[in-house]
Amino acid sequence: MMMCFKALVLLACTSGYAQTASQQKQNAQSYFNGEHLLLHIKTLSSDAFEGRQTGTKGGIKAKQYIIDQFEKLGVQPLGEGFEQEFSFTRRNKSYTAGNVLGLIKGTEFPESYIVISAHYDHLGIRKKEGQSDHIYNGADDDASGTSALFSFAEYFKNNPPKHSVILTAFDSEELGLKGSKYFVDHARVPLESIMVNLNMDMISRSDKKELYAVGTRYNAALKSLILNFKPAGNLKLLIGHDGEDGKQNWTGSSDHGSFHNKKIPFLYFGVEDHKDYHKASDHYENIHPEFYKDAVRLIISVFNELDAIQLKKG
Ligand SMILES: [Zn+2]
Questions:
Q1: From residue 296, how far is each of 25, 108, 150, 170, 292 by CA, in Å?
Q2: From the CA of 221, how far away is ligand 1's center (Å)?
Q3: How many whole angstroms from 121 Cα to the centroid of ligand 1?
Q4: Helix 289-307 with 34-44: angle, nearest 10 deg
């Protein structure tokens, strides 16, 4: 796998960067409908979804919302149905949970997969000490990544990918990456056929307009791709947070960690923790819509660079 990446990144480096920034921006704007993106994040982080905790009414409502959107957008189920149900026990509590797995068949390399993921669960309804119940809406964490899955699906309607794409909304990330662990342990495609995981978790706000791509430390080809990438829009793409720059190490901080544990290359897109992180105030009103749209465009552009790499087996 590593050898393929090394050999193939040259293709990406020599072919992918001829566009000017303005051309890139123009292309990016036609990628998906930004208003749809905002409507989805607003909906999923509304009180009606009750904070989307695993196994709760709100969590199940979110799961159904994702399945409905996938169906509307022409995404196929991966395997027999969209849902991958699983159960587990944590701190003496039993949970029934469900990932949502969609498939877009690749036009050139259908047996090779890029997994694009986000987690749809969040913290639910909690009592703050001495106060009444609060709904933890989890707009940035991670209604932002989940809604971006629909933008990818919109984009693929007009721009079918060369590699097959698995669009994955994981459950139970907040309970210890349970959904992604189950996904890699009970994979519906051979793990060797997964080329890379692009994970999105907290991509909708940044005071400094900074988005991190974590995981380049572990893969020279991905590092070269990100370092050479020129983002369109008003945001900075940074590498780091993967254990060698003295900053907090995010290698295992979200679902990409489960892929990393199986030696599958990953890029994790996310922002620095902010004042509303894991607070009841992680509301839709606190996201930065322009940054968010730029971030999703950027991630789709990175996807395109990866999709242009011809993965040869063996
Ligand atoms: Zn998260």
A1: 12, 24, 11, 18, 6
A2: 26
A3: 8
A4: 110
**Token digits for 259?**
């892929």
Distance, CA 74 to ligand 1 centroid (Å)?
A: 26
Rounded to 5°, angle at Cα 250 from 2 and 155: 70
Radius of gyration of the chain (CA): 18
Tokens 């994981």 — which residue?
Answer: 170
Mean pLDDT, each 10-residue run in order, the chain (314 residues): 38 43 53 96 98 98 98 96 97 97 97 97 86 91 98 96 98 98 97 97 97 96 93 93 93 98 97 94 96 97 90 35
pTM of the predicted model as reported, rounded to 2 decimal places: 0.90
The alpha carbon of 138 and the centre of ligand 1 are apart by a number of angstroms equal to: 8
CA of 133 to the centre of ligand 1 (A): 21
Compute the distance between CA of residue 175 and CA of residue 54 in angstroms, rounded to an integer. Answer: 8
The one-letter amino acid code at 165 reads V
| Ligand 1 centroid, distance to 142 Cα (angstroms) | 5
- Residue 220: C-alpha distances to residues 6, 158, 212 (Å): 7, 31, 17
CA of 305 to the centre of ligand 1 (A): 25
Centre of ligand 1 from the C-alpha of residue 307, in Å: 25
